[in-house]
């Protein structure tokens, strides 16, 4: 799992059947200090509550579709939850 910030959304006229009814969001992965890390990714919003500016935690690959209880989802990342508070002891 890793964290990221929702920075946009994606609108599709056609989707894979496994993605029907799911919101696609653009997420910028973050480092531990909440600075940007790498390229932006497209993630499915499995919790159906994430939105612009939210800090979220994500799962990769097969785990991205676990909350949906489907055998296979055509996604590389899935939003598992919204981060309410974030603290690292130094």
UniProtKB/TrEMBL annotation:
PROSITE patterns: BMV. It comes from the Bacteria. Pfam families: EutN_CcmL. This is EutN/CcmL family microcompartment protein. It comes from Evansella tamaricis. The lineage of its organism: Bacteria, Bacillati, Bacillota, Bacilli, Bacillales.
């Amino acid at each position: 799992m890793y964290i990221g910030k929702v920075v946009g959304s994606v609108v599709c006229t056609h989707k894979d059947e496994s993605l029907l009814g799911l919101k696609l969001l653009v997420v910028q992965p973050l480092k531990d200090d909440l600075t940007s890390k790498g390229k932006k990714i497209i993630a499915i919003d499995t919790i159906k509550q994430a939105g612009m500016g939210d800090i979220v935690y994500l799962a990769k690959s097969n785990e991205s579709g676990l909350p949906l209880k489907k055998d296979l989802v055509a996604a590389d990342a899935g939003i598992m939850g919204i981060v309410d508070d974030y603290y690292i002891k130094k």
